[in-house]
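G., the chain you wanted modeled:
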Amino acid sequence: MGTQHPSAPPRAQYRVAGNNHPHRRPHHSPGGGLEHDHTRHTTRFTVVGNHLVQHPELSLLAIGLGAHIQSLPKGARADIKTLAARFPEGPTRIAAALRELEAHGYLRRPRERVPGGRIVTRTISCNQPGRHAEPESVPGPEPEPESGPEPVRHQRPTLTPKKRTPRKPLPVVPQPACSSPALLQTATDLLADLRRHDPRLLLSACDTAHLAPGVAAWLERDVSPAAVRHALTADLPPEGPRRPAALLAHRLTAQLPPPPPFGAPTPPPAVPQPFQTCDGCDRAFRAPEPGRCRDCRSDLPKAA
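Predicted structure as tokens:
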């Protein structure tokens, strides 16, 4: 029998479709991890960056709420009341998640005054935080010396960096009549302890120094520290104050109680007379000078 010489070419390798195939088969992970069964969207979809959905510092509620807000159409309501009615988490957790998104640049909520005089809050969703600012110009490479005419280079215009709006100063607070160091220290300790009652009232050292005289003015008017703490922390807005120090300064001024009523000085208590020993019966009695007691004195009028 002669040696076989196969002449048929080997079977061509089947090319696996790319990511743009509408019915891609799921890829099985050899380690038993996550598998994807993806179908390409052609309508009703939103592109969300991995920097949001895989953010290392945002909570799961904030990530989901951020993705939901990015999927809403322009003009849709995204305030705390509307979102709390849409989801089961409630206003407090919704407000905390919105503050997370605002702190990481995914949300901006500026306040504006409408023509009627009312102040409204706008909600601006940012799908890429920091990209709304204009990039700085990048200088091009230095031209090499040539013998011929210098080529025309199109330089990018130099952009002027935007100036940050200066922080609005805090409102003035009442001043105590006598600013003793002990009174100011008690007021400072009270302000520093507010964060234990509400974490949203975490104050900086500069804000605490500004507010301490106002608290001292309350304590100087015979208001207990517990009453001052209640006046500063009660009935806070559910979404939390945007500037806690400004809110506390307003309350210290607007709700300052009147001075305590004037009271006439009480007379000193009467000093009792010293004890004396009776010269007649040796009985002890109170009298300014030694002598006889009431029963032994003969000069007292007798009862009828």
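Residues 50-125 form one domain.

Shout if anything looks off.
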